[in-house]
Amino acid sequence: MSQRGVWQLKRLTVNYCNWGGSSRGIRAFMETHLPAFKESNPQLEVVTEEIRGNRNERVVCVKNMTPEDVLECATKLRNSLGRKVLKLKTRHVTKHPSVQGTWTTELNL
Amino acid sequence: MATKRCFQTLARQSSIFSPNPSLQYLHRTLKPHLQTLTLTLASTSQTPKDDHIWHSLILSPNTHFAFARSFSSNRGNDTASDEDDGVGDSEDEDGEISDGEEVLTANRREYSVEEKETEAAAIGYKVIGQLERAERVFKDYEPVFAVIQIGSHQFKVSNGDCVYTERLKFCEVNDKLILNRVLMLGSKTQTMIGRPILPEAAVHAVVEEHALDAKVIIFKKKRRKNYRRTKGHRQELTKLRITDIQGIEKPDKTAPAKPEKSPPGKTEKASVKK
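^ Those are the sequences you sent over. The predicted structure of the assembly is below.
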């Protein structure tokens, strides 16, 4: 849409996947209708990006932060694993909880 | 108390009103030495804008620090602010009186001497080894366990376990640590109990991440009293992966019987190459 002759949409990012089935429609659109759409809208910047599979992205807002704060943010992101932050069930995660055998009431040393 | 508070505000104003380089030089030279306040009672009656009087009286620039000391144990910012400019100096002094900013300055205190780091590490019962560079540190599971103490928490760990502790200050991600506070070692056949620690035992660990825990909301309410407070808190944690336990005899792991074709083939190839 345009307000007083100025187009409001400047950039269109088309994310698709080459492998997934749900991207069939968008892939067909890119082959058939997208070139015509680009030509009819020369003012619009259309970018196509292939996103294969899932992405794990963490977006941090650094609005109005000092350079030192931004460095701290970046360091924190680098130090973390990227896993979803859930409440810890236990502080000790192990696959082999017992070495000498689990204790039972019938245990005789 | 009133006289103390008066002097605090007056000292603050004087530091604002007199940004002379000579005075700032005085500040800098006198800071590390003078800790006490030697002010006569007559001076307190003077108006705050009499700068020439205050020049002689501001002999201990740490005066307003002295009052602030009651809130925090360490004033590490003295060394940091010595390096700042004169203008920055006065701004720091004004800002540090509030409680909130004192916590920030305490966190950013620099441990310049490496001995301090090792001492603090001894308190937390860890020694920083070297960083990892394409080494194979992660072994298979061995049926050996150790009881470890980190800070005030104790864990029973084995090879390949993950342990979440409070944030360990002097180590980065991918650092190798040696946890030297080992209270007990055990294997299938042997158990060694320390009194309270085993002196020749060592547990190797690698720092996996420094991250924040999930947010807990601390909600306080007093009913019918119009009192309700909500506070969010995220604890800083360190995840350690235990790689090796030393100090106890480990049972020999016999290699699984491989098909006999491959080893003779390999030896043949080796002989051919020679």
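The mean pLDDT of chain B is 68. Residues 123-246 of chain B form one domain.

Shout if you want it in another format.
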